[in-house]
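Problem statement: downstream parser choked on a complex file, so we are re-checking the raw output for the pyridoxal-5'-phosphate run. The parser issue turned out to be on our end (a line-ending mismatch), but while we're here, posting the original submission so the record is complete.
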Amino acid sequence: MPDINELYQQTIIEHHKKPRNFGKLEHYTHHAEGYNPLCGDHLHVYLRVGADQIIQDVSFEGDGCAISRSSASLMTESLKGKPLNTAKELFNEFHDMLLKKLDPAKDPHHLGKLSIFAGIWQYPSRVKCASLSWHTMTGALEQKESVSTE
Amino acid sequence: MNTFDPKSIRSDFPVLSRRVNGRPLVYLDNAATTLKPQTVISAEMDYYQNFTSNIHRGVHTLSEEATDRYEAVREKARAFLNAHRSEQVIFTKGATEAINLVASAYGEAFLKAGDEIIISEMEHHSNIVPWQLLCERKGCVLKVAPMNDRGEIIFSEFQKLLNEKTRFVSLVYISNSLGTINPVKKLIKEAHKYEVPVLLDAAQAVNHFAVDVHDLNCDFLVFSGHKLFGPTGVGVLYGKKELLEAMPPYQGGGDMIASVTFKKTTFNTLPYKFEAGTPHIAGVIGLGAALDYVKEIGFEAISKYEQDLLEYGTEKLLTIDGLSLIGTASQKAAILSFTLPGIHPHDIGTIVNKEGIAIRTGHHCTQPVMAHFQIPATSRASLAFYNTYDEIDQLVSALKTVKTIFA
Ligand SMILES: Cc1ncc(COP(=O)(O)O)c(C=O)c1O
């Protein structure tokens, strides 16, 4: 087992305490609610997508553990200003990394800061915490009202 | 047993010699399930190795042995609960199934639209949902007795809910998420003034102290074997004889019949009427070994030691800056639910697990309790007689590490 500090890195703790893009977005075009029934984590993701298919703004709000909040916060940072296609690609890469199918140390990727979640596959019960905001974001883009991890 | 020695007791539980993440296991999740002593494991294995066979069906030696051993456990469970007769003990898959059995069979026969059922705010989901399902089927009304902020049922509010329309009361004996020991004898007495039967969910009680159905005068009582140092997949329903006899069967199948023709089936007598199909024979035999085990240690010693541990744990946890205990009833079992400000229980659970400490984090299948305290979840350390003062110190030290990481 790795050192616990590898999971709870400073960046994660910092984003947990001061989440970026936190709160409801004004004039959003897409929204979904995400829920993890196992731990009660609950969040909303809001997006404003332009006619040019670019994510002009994105935010989240809700309660959760450090992993789910920091993951949501980092997600909003990495999606802002990106075309929808890029968002989908990032989701796929992030998802593969959580399942250990993509190793950011070896495989090509565009994850940037998101790669701090690379070790999470070693904590199977926490994978869903990291993926909740991403599933919720995808659900919002697919016009789903709510998303559950179960 | 006069001198209670957790050290020697710990050697009865093989899993306690395990290491987790390089550390000796500190198992503080006893409210989820308790560990199993070697005698329970051996008893279950004995059945599979030496007398595997079906029960109540054979004239051959193995079947007779298995039937005897199975039925002997019914008698042990009767004595354990101080019930009058062994046929008042029905083996189920667990507490959940036992509650569902009563909600279905009793509910089907005796409840009708407009009848009221009372539960409390601190019920486990397994003592909420079966009643909600019944209410949906029958048009009954579910009433919830509220609790105060210490996690105690407010007696005067409970009294107010009782009336001529009340037809059933179902209450948790000890709350799994708060540790509250409810004054069930007094609550039962009150319900009986309206001739309302009371079911006690004793899932968290039977491992902490002696439970006496005769003294409590409850009408039904349920528990699970796995929370009493026994196997998973087996539990007990106790019921008053006249009620059980008046109830229709819960499930149909083999063993629960007297005779079957396509025109008409007549049902077997108690307890077999409620034990359709081949039961968890190995599990029941394992449960018998668990009942023997706790009897040998004795509840007097268990209760006293656990109360000392609880007092020590409460005191130690409260030395942690900012920690709040959730559940501070005046009568409590050795269950410590808590929160740390700004730190989610799942992060706490993951971090202490790195030090080999197993606690439960989440809503503990009591979402209404979480709603009462306006929290999403708690961390919970639930103790058993094999836990030690040193393990509590280890938990406290691990919680300090959690605080450092989140500082
Ligand atoms: C108070 C209480 N009631 C009922 C149950 C359900 O027990 P089981 O899941 O063994 O059926 C539990 C288990 O967590 C419990 O704590």
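For whoever reads this later: Residues B 94-96, 124, 126-127, 172, 176, 201, 203-204, 224, 365 surround pyridoxal-5'-phosphate (CB under 6 Å).
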